[in-house]
Amino acid sequence: MLITAAQLPDGRRRDIRITDGSIAAVEQSLALREDEVLLDAAGRTLMPGAIDVHVHFREPGYEHKETFHSGSRAAAAGGVTTIVDQPNTDPPTISGSAFDEKAIRAAESLVDYGLNGGVTDAWEPATLLERPLFALGEVFMADSTGSMGIGDETFVAAVRRASEANIPVTVHAEDSEYFDPTALDGATGVGGDADAERWSRYRPPAAEIAAVERATSVAAKTDAQLHVAHTSTPEAVDHAAEAANVTCEVTPHHAFLSREDAAELGTFGRMNPPLRSESDRAAVFDRIVDGTVDMIATDHAPHTREEKQRSLTDAPSGVPGVETMVPLLLAAVRDGQLSLERVRDLVAATPAEVFGLSAKGRIEPGRDADLALYDLDRVTQIDGEQLHSTCSWTPFAGRDGVFPLATLVRGELVYVAPEANIEAPFDGSFGPAIGRNVRQ
Q1: Assuming Cys at both sites, which of 211, 326, 330, 361 could form a disulfide with 79, CB separation 3.0 to 4.6 Å?
Q2: CA distance 307 to 195
Q3: How big is the CA angle at 293 (ends 288 and 299), to the nearest 5 degrees?
């Protein structure tokens, strides 16, 4: 394939030749060969495919919420070409055999993937750490969906084992000692009518800050590579940035939503960590802009509408986001809040560098041809019914998004928007499953 006249994130216009799944050349002008397919990208922006290092595709055990098939379609339709699935499934991914079962299901993925291994008091490190893990984690320092919270002793032992095996550790940093159950006293209403701000008071910023401090201390003592998931407070981001061998991610919902949105969202805005104050959100966004935050990852955690329409104390935590992450960030580019280069770094270049994906993350010769093509003037309002996750809802309904016209994984078209006017070698919007484990 030859992609011509594409605008790259740094503003250059280049032709890109793709051979055997890799980028073979990036030049000002390349001649079309007889055996090549042409993709004219004039007037359009070409981004490296995004790497979402934090998704919950729910297989096995919760297929009514999401599957690798449905979740990877949502990823591709959002310009995401690599996903990393978390272990809180049923059974949880805490043993070699559980990993093997999930790996069979992951073969249905349209995009490339990594599989994380989990930690509980009953985990089996001897077999699990022999598998091609992307990372150990999400290691839960407090209970969230899946009830995989662990105590300090298990946490320290797990981080030490991961360090010895040279495997990164992704941590869900909340300290339940700081939770305030009185915040939920008298909670009334269900679904969108619930007082979701109470959930934010129940799991306050101090719980996250204390847990990040604890996790980074353990990582320093064990010489572990630590990645802090879904940081939601400026203090936690700063602490991670100051620690050696520690990185952090921020989710789109913590970047673009705050407690001021809680009344409208109700239980559809319940997640862990919860929405923070508008001042905290703005401070975290400033750190996204200035480079203190390492990457954006979605914590894509879909639940059905019926599940989210329960009471505040009964509804599950989590929101979908894998399809809307890049579109929201590109809308922020249009609004002058971010640069294209910063978006590239947040969702592609830095995740690839931090997690050792040397073939991904940038548009350079020798890299995988994981690419997404955008028209930055094609702005649409986000509508959950038009998205591809099984849950068919989004906390970002009504917000602007810039969705891809086409997405390629290792040089193969896997998604083409219906209005893109791009010829695809398949019927409909999606190609066949071609995803593979990035650790093999």
Answers
A1: 326
A2: 16
A3: 95
Q: What is the DSSP letter of 273?
A: S
Q: Are 231 and 307 in contact (CB under 8 A)?
A: no
Hey, CA dihedral for 370, 108, 91, 147, is it positive or negative?
positive
DSSP 205: H
Per DSSP, what are the bridge partners of residue 324?
none
DSSP class of 181: G
Coil, strand, or helix at residue 308?
A: helix
User: Could you give the count of Cα atoms lying within 13 Å of 397 in the half-sphere of its Cβ?
Assistant: 13
- What digits encode the pLDDT tens for the residues 293-325? 999 999 999 999 999 999 999 999 999 999 999
Q: How far lies 26's CA from each of 14, 88, 153, in Å?
A: 6, 41, 51
Q: How far is CA 337 from the centre of its chain?
A: 21
CB 201 within 8 A of CB 183: yes
> Is position 299 annotated as part of the catalytic site?
yes
Q: How far apart are CA 83 and CA 305, in angstroms?
A: 24
**Which of 153, 157, 168 has the alpha carbon at shortest distance from 224?**
168
Give burial (CB, 10 Å; 0-12/13-18/19+) of 193. middle
Local confidence band at 146 (pLDDT 50, 70, 90 cut-offs): low
- Whole-angstrom CA distances from 233 to 201, 242, 283, 319, 355 are 14, 15, 8, 18, 23
Task: Report whether pLDDT(142) > 90.
Answer: no
For residues 223 and 163, the answer to whether their CB atoms sit within 8 Å is yes
| CA triple 389-393-395, angle to 5 deg | 120
Percent of the chain with pLDDT over 70: 100
Q: Which of 15, 52, 85, 299 is catalytic?
A: 299
Integer Cα distance of 300 and 317 in angstroms: 11
Q: Which residue has the tokens 């306050």?
A: 204
Type of residue found at 426:
F
258 near 275, Cβ under 8 Å?
A: yes
Residue 1 CB neighbour total at 10 angstroms: 18
Give the neighbor-by-neighbor strand order of the sheet with 169-172.
136-140, 169-172, 226-228, 246-250, 295-296
